[in-house]
Every structure is written in structure tokens, then in C-alpha cells.
Specification:
The complex is a heterodimer of chains A (456) and B (336). Chain A is mostly helical. Chain A contains 19 helices and no strands. The radius of gyration of chain B is 21 Å and the shape is globular. Classes of the chains: A mainly alpha (456), B mainly alpha (336). The interface between A and B is large, with 42 and 42 residues.
Amino acid sequence: MRKNLNVIAAYSIMMVLILMVGIFQSWNIALSIFNLCLISAVMTMGANIQWGYAGLINFGIMGYTALGGLAAVLISVDPVQEAWRAGGFDILMSLWLIVVMVLVIRFILKRFEKSKIRTYSIAAIIISGILLIRFSAEPGIEAIEAVDPAKTGFLGGFGLPIIFSWIVGALFAGGLAFIVGKVALGLRADYLAIATLLISEIVIAIIKHEDWLTRGVKNVIGLKRPAPYEVDLQTTDWFIKLVEKFNAGKLSVIENLADRQAALNQLVIEGSSVFVKLCYSGLFLVVVIILLILTQKALYSPWGRMMRAIRDNEEAANAMGKNVVKQHLLIFILGSAIVGIAGAMLVTQDGLFTPGSYRPMRYTFLIWVMVIVGGSGNNFGAILGGFVVWFLWIEAAPISLFLINFFTAGIPETNAFKAHLIESVPYFRFLLMGLGLLFIMRYRPKGILPEKIEIK
Amino acid sequence: MDFVNAIILLLNYIFIPALTYGSQLALGAIFVTLIYGILRFANFATGDMMSFGTMATILFTWYFQSLGVSLGVLPTALLAIPFGIIFMILYMLLIDKFVFKYYRHQKSPPVQFAMVSIGVMFVTQAVVRIIIGPGDRRFFDGEKFIIKARQFKEMTGLNEGLALKSTQVITIFVTIVLVSLLFWFLNRTKTGKSMKAYSDNEDLALLSGIDPKKIVLVTWVIAGILATIGGALYGLDKSFKPFTYFNNMLPIFAAAIVGGIGNPFGAFLGGYVIAFSEILLTYAYKKFFMYILPESMEPNSLVQLLSTDYKFAVSFSILVIVLIYRPSGIFKGKVL
């Protein structure tokens, strides 16, 4: 118990902070912060597996998150029959061509010795393949995008419950990670960072501009929910009764019956959105706990020990007969798959998919700040990092507004400097994150909750 | 005649824009490569440092404009750049003192440096946005065109016009002067040579009496000059927006690595490689083929290899291919 004291203390402080937001601001805000903290925690767990367990640097988190989000769209949206009729055949043909191309390349790679001719012929196959695919897919894509572009204009998905997308998102992200890992994992650490960053930008570019698949920057809205809708809740009897019961004391004070009904209605509206958020919190908590148990088990298993050995001394681990390349690839896939789950969870919660909102600051670098601040190599640390950093990210603006007002209390409102500062309050969050990262790296390089390995 | 028209078309839409964009990337890429070669880390704050330098330049431009000082046909920003450079260098030295120096003395691995530079990136981004805001700023004044497309048409009687913006000429001219000066400095002066030696083998350089503090200082000074000028030229030619500058970090990295990181000449050429491939692959050649092919063979489609949406993706793909097949870059060579 004693050795875990700092973990318990850190988490209690975090919970108290969120509760304080609930009491002083509103429960809606507190719960939405909490939910995003949970999603961030899943992302940091993914990044932590790669960086903390294996020392692999992955700046492509944004790409995997977006793929998870894409999975949510492809799973939950109903298929657009008309679009399938218009261009489905061409798209399937192109997919088939891609498969054939990959098989041919594999065949050449297996069959022939490494030589210049082989390299050039593979390049020729890829280039002619891309041209061929473009040529064959073009009419299909145009036809699909022409189908009611204001509403659909894409193929749609499978019309399944959105929860499935959490698994499919993991598969998508893992699949991408397999390709990226095969290609880039041999690189030096800082090259790997740049390569993954750039590959994630390519993924975003594709998601943004392939409208037939994702609707691109036109966004997909109104995704199905795993939780009830507020509007439905507000007309459900048991829910109204529940709200009444909760607020019995408050309501009994009001004498007038009409006033009481109005107050109850207001409470029901507020309560419904809190209730929906609580549903999401429950779902997300289940995911976080399952992942935490699995990652903790993995960390203390022989496999986890091997990963740490590889991280700390690759050559020695190699000499002991461990297949470093294979393990690196495996952990790269696992970590990215977890990030993919988080991406799908995020879109599930928002109920919309906005490819334009995927930016590296928010989805790659912020996650890295979380991992470093929380404590790399320690799952509890990584989750805490997700909580702390997301909390600060959201609350930075109110905090800095308060501080500015506090320090410039004597200066009149009309002062240009003060007005300018207040106007730029949203950007103080970047400052806070940067300074936080720099201070942690300097004075507590292992993070708030450092890695602790006990050999049992 | 059609043939000349086709050439002018390519000059106007591909060659000159790519040369300008490539020059801007090249300056940034040399900045990245210098930091990488001498201070030995991938600086993720590159784009934001460039935006800081540009911001300082813009503030001085506004100041000069309010004083009524101008350079006539040339943009006032040219006058403000030296002052911007001073601020940039001061900011860089400040950051080096409080952030990077510690890790240099600790001999931290490059990955840790890269992480720290992300912290610097966040801070710089905040500083820029707090001071000048996140919006789009244009600070160009003076004569916009050297040759207008219409004038050119009238002068030559051709169908295609050739527009030459003054910012394009300024960018290319300044880049040539700056880069020649830089290579002269690196190859001919004693400090430059000692920088090369330091980059090549730190221990040997220290043994032969090279002062590491001076090397680091000179590196930051050169970096500040490159970052400010590169950023200001980009801002003059297009416009200044902090987010765009952050994004520009990516093609700049691509240019530096394609050219062989640590090799300034490679980075210089890398900038053009990236710029030309981006523009060549995303340009719609329909009009070009209409000029050079007989009427019966004219294309119906746009003859565009990739849609312009994938502009960035092109440079990143090139980078990924280079990283896989020639990790040391196309222009393999000695460090620095």
C-alpha cells in the first residue's frame, strides 16, 4: 500500500480537481473533460507502450487516431445504395487491382535476386499501377461523389452498431502500423520521428481528399450513438422521475405548481445531457480498465521483461537470441492499434467525423506531452499524464484569464495592452504546455509517476 | 509560336513559382541541417522559430511604416529584416541558454533533444500567437509586379503571359547572395572550417583547441539569419500565418533529409528538389499539351498526375522513399 501512495495521491488530486470543476463550473463541463481525459488516457497508453516499453518514437499518432475515426464512420453509417450502384463496381475493380499489384510485387521480391533491374521493374509496376488505378477508378469516384453531394456523395459504411468500430479502428490502425513499421522501423530514432510524422500527414491528406470514402472536408455528421439521445430521454417517464427524485429538495421549495414544472423541465434538460455523458464515461472507463489490466500484465510478463531488455540494450538482447526487429514491429502495431481504438472512441463520443480537425499539435504532440509529463514506461503515469494535461489544456484559458485579471487589476479595461492579453487568452494553453514539458524534462525527466520495475 | 507559348506557360506556372518556393524551403532546410550537424538534434521548433523571426520583422515593418520610412518600390520589410534577425538571434540564444545548454552538457541522446525542442515549439507558438495573433498578415508594400502578364503579352505578342512578381525576384536574388556568403564562410574562413571540424568529429575538434561555446554561438547566429530571412521571404511572397509556418516545417524537414541531413549544400538542393517535384506532379498540363500537340491529339482531361490537394503528400512520399533507399540522402557527402 505504502509504495503506491504517490499513485493514489496523484489520482485523488486529479479527481478532486475534476469534481471542483463540476461544483464551480458545471457538471456538463466536468464530465466532458473527464470523458476526453479517458480518451486521452487510451491514446497515451498506446504511445507509452511504444515509447516507454520499447523506446520507439512514434510521431504519427494523429494518423492512427484519424484511421480509428474513419473506422467509426465506415462501420456505423448506413450504406448509400445509390452510390454503390453508381460507382461501386469501379471502386471494387480498383481494390482488386491494388491486390493484384501487391501480389505481383511480392512475387517478384520472392522470385528474383536483389538487383537494379528488380528495383526498377518494381518501381515501374508501382507507377503504372497507380496510373491504371487512377484511370479505372476516376469515373466511379466521380459518379459516387455526384450522388446527392450535399448529404452523401460517398459510399457510406456497413450500418452496424458503432461500438464495433472500436475493434475495427484498432485493426485499421494496426494494419497501417504494420506497413509503416515494415518500412520505417529500421531508421534511427530521430529519423523515425520525422518519417512517422510525415506519414501521418499523408494519411490525413488522403482522408481529407478522398471524398468517395470519407466525404472529406464536408464531414460526416449524425453518427449513430451507443448511448441514448437527449431528446428521447427528456420524454421518458423513468428519467423524469429519476431527476425529480434527485432534486426533490430543490423542487419542494418552489410553491407554485407551474413554476415547479418549469424548473423540473430545465433540470431534465440539463440532466439528460449529463446522463448521456455518464453513459459514455462508463463505456470509456471499461475500455481504459481492460487496457490497463492487459498492459500491466504484459509489462510484468516475460515478454515485458524482454521488451525492456531490448529497449535498454538492443545489441545485448539481440545476442541473447531475441528477435529485435520482430518485437519492434509487434509493439509498434500494438501501440498504434490502441491509439486507433481511442480515435474511434473520440468520433463515437462526438458523433461526427471532421477530417479537417486532425492537426499534429492536438493529436500528436499533445499526446507526447502527456506521456512525458505522466511518466513514460509506467501505465499509471501515462494515464495520469492524459488526465493532467487534458485538464490543463481545457482549463488553461480560464486560469490564465483569471491570472491576467488578477495581475492587471489596477489597469482600466480600456487599456490596449490588457485588452490584447485578454484577447489572446486561448493561446496561453500552448505556453503552459510548453513550459510544463520543459520543466518536467529538466527537473523530473522520468515524469510525475516514474517507471518502477520490481522483479518479483 | 505554339512552342514558345508552351515554354512561357511552363515558366510562368512551374519554373518561377517552384524556384521561389524552393529558395524559401532551401533557407529553412539549411537552418535545420546546421542545427542537426552541429548541435546534433532534429529541431522540431524550426517552423515556429521562422515564424518568430518573421513576426519580429513584421513588427519592425509596421513601425517603419508608421514613421513613414519606405524603400520606394522595394518592400519596407527589407529594411526591417536586419532588426528582425537581431531579435531572432537573441531569442534563440535565450532558449539555448535556458533549455538546450543543459542537455548539451548532459550529453543527452538526440531523442531527448527532439522532445525538448517540442517544448520550445509549444512555447514559441504561444509567444507568436500572443504577440501578433493567429490570423493572416500581409506586410508587403511597394511595387508588386516587375512584369505583368498583360504587359508581357503586349510586348511579345504571345498568347501566354509571363508575370514576374517582385517578391519572386527578391527571394531568388537574396537566396543566391545569402547562400553564396554562407558557403564562402563555411569553406574559406577559420570559424567556418572549425564548425565543419566540430560537426565532423567533436572530440577531435575539441582536442585541437576549438572553442565549443563559440561554435554554438556562431551556429545560432547563422541559424537566426537563415530563419528570419527564409521566414520573411515566405511571408512577403505569400502571407504570414503562424499555422502555415508550423506546417512548413514538414517540407523543410523533407528537403533537409532528401539532401542528406548535416550537409548544407544538399539541403540547398533538397529545397529545390522538393519544390519542383511538388509543383511538377500537381500541375495540370492540359494547356501545355494543347500548345504542343496537334489539334487532333488534344487531351480531354486535365492531365494532372495528382490533385493539388496532395501537394504536401508528394514531398513526404519522396522523403519516405529516400529514407528507405538512401537514408543518408540523395547528395550523400561529408557532414557539413
